[in-house]
Write a structure and sequence with these properties.
Layout (H helix, E strand, L loop, with lengths): L6 H36 L11 E6 L7 H17 L3 E6 L7 H10 L4 E2 L3 H5 L17 H8 L2 H9 L7
Parallel strand pairs: 1-2, 1-3
Length: 166
């Protein structure tokens, strides 16, 4: 490779620009991390609002017009109508709090109270949750609810993730 006059100057200029840009990117990343840590510190499990109501945070990855969000919005109305003086429900759709794995971790640490996540994520904490991913396990919706309401069936499964903060 033969360098011509001015090539070294161009390379030095390019290197300086890259250093300046990478410095800005590093500063931006540090600011984002600091903001995230600050926000994480502000989101406390069982946090009380200014009105003395307990804030309950729920995250999920679906759009606002998805049945999960619609159901959670109805849950929010139901709770706040009956217990509005004691609870304030906050719903975070569209992965506002991160992907499902991130939200599960936030639930483990107590930063949020609930998240809607797929069973496959729970399988990483306990293989007992594999049961819920078996196709055609339940013959009907009523048989599903009967099994889920039976503590003899579910207590061992749910207890298997208790140490993990779930």
């Amino acid at each position: 490779m033969h360098l011509q006059n001015g090539d070294c100057a161009k390379m030095n200029s390019t290197a300086k620009n890259l250093r300046r840009i990478s410095g800005k990117i590093a500063a931006f990343i540090i600011i984002v991390i600091m903001a995230s840590v600050t926000c994480a510190c502000d989101i406390g499990h069982g946090e009380q609002s200014g009105s003395g109501r307990r804030i309950v945070r729920i995250g999920h990855n679906q759009a606002t017009d998805h049945p999960i969000n619609i159901g959670l919005a109805e849950f929010e109305k139901y709770v706040e109508k009956r217990l509005g003086d004691r609870f304030d429900i906050e719903i975070f759709p569209n992965e506002l709090l991160g992907a499902q794995t991130d939200m599960v971790q936030l639930t483990q640490t107590g930063a949020i109270d609930f998240c809607v996540a797929s069973n496959s994520i729970l399988e990483t904490f306990s293989d007992r949750y594999t049961l819920f991913n078996l196709p055609y396990l339940f013959a009907s919706t009523s048989s599903y609810h009967a099994a889920m309401d039976d503590e003899d069936i579910t207590s061992g499964i749910f207890a298997s993730t208790k140490k993990g903060g779930l």
